[in-house]
Write a structure and sequence with these properties.
alpha/beta, Arc Repressor Mutant, subunit A, D-Maltodextrin-Binding Protein, domain 2, nine-stranded mixed sheet, 10 helices
């Protein structure tokens, strides 16, 4: 069995598409398809159901996927023990991050890392409602909770705070609420409740029992823009809101605290490109920790 063929199968299984896997591996999609076909012929079983909109694992493919992940773990361990793990900071690293942290903080700062390492390619993607590191939908995930299950390596990146905000224009026109109860007289902005994928995103319950937003947006950046436009009062990330001169803190004694975690699959812990990115994320946050808390 050719290990490269197994590695290519893993890429397809994790991305769900031959084309997406070929882009990540940097090879032609037709070549990738032929290599996996050769693997199936060697195993004398069908591993993938190929459709126009993607690939799905067969029952045999699911079994082989778990075995292939164990092979990958052993291969990385063997490379590390013999000093043959990759030594060049090159290749692709995909970072999944919440939109507030990804767009408002990381997007303008990650260019420093690619300038240091010209052969490193970074991909910054939003963390969706359903997300799987084990299927390599990202190499590194920034999460707002520490994952409790799976073969994952996690470390706290930083604590951060949120608070109530409104635009200066809105407060000039509608007045500033002086109590939590007074918030009920103002339009409130919040998340789309049935799309909240983590209990940690339910900030409103820490302010008042029934937030009852008149404008719901399933994006932290979208909520910030809505508040900035004068649409009402919302709970915003302090490090994001402080970037706008139009936004004003409301009821400043109310402070909501959360944390960001970096998480990656344990089978990739010895990849130098991944370690380089994880270390750089910590470096960035350490430099500007004051903006988060």
């Amino acid at each position: 069995m050719n290990w490269d063929d197994v590695r290519m199968f893993l890429a397809i299984a994790r991305s769900g598409q031959i084309l997406a896997a070929s882009r990540r591996l940097g090879i032609n999609h037709a070549t990738l398809g032929r290599r996996v076909t050769a693997l199936e012929e060697g195993l004398r079983t069908r591993l993938l159901i190929r459709r126009t909109n993607g690939c799905e694992l067969t029952a045999e493919g699911e079994i082989f996927f778990r075995a292939a992940e164990r092979m990958e773990t052993e291969m990385l361990a063997a490379q590390a023990s013999t000093g043959r793990i990759d030594t060049a900071v090159a290749g692709t690293v995909r970072i999944g991050a919440p939109d507030g942290f990804g767009v408002s903080f990381l997007a303008s700062r990650l260019g420093r890392l690619t300038r240091r390492h010209p052969d490193l390619k970074l991909q910054l993607v939003p963390v969706p409602r359903s997300f799987s590191l084990s299927q390599r939908e990202a190499d590194i995930a920034i999460t707002i909770e520490r994952p409790e299950q799976g073969r994952l390596v996690s470390s706290k990146l930083t604590d951060y705070t949120l608070g109530l905000y409104a635009s200066k224009t809105y407060l000039d026109q509608s007045g500033t609420p002086e109590t939590v109860e007074a918030l009920r007289a103002h339009p409130r902005i919040g998340y789309v409740e049935d799309l909240i994928f983590s209990p940690s995103l339910n900030f409103t319950g820490e302010v008042m029992r029934d937030w009852d937003a008149s404008f719901e947006i399933s994006s932290a950046i979208g909520q910030t823009e809505a508040v900035r436009s004068g649409a009402g009062i919302g709970i915003l990330h302090d490090y994001v809101a402080r970037q706008s001169s139009e936004l004003r803190r409301v009821l400043p004694d109310i402070v909501i605290r959360r944390s960001y975690w970096t998480t990656y699959h344990e089978t990739t812990r010895d990849l130098i490109r991944l370690r380089t990115v994880v270390d750089f994320l910590k470096e960035l946050v350490d430099e500007e920790r004051h903006i988060f808390v």
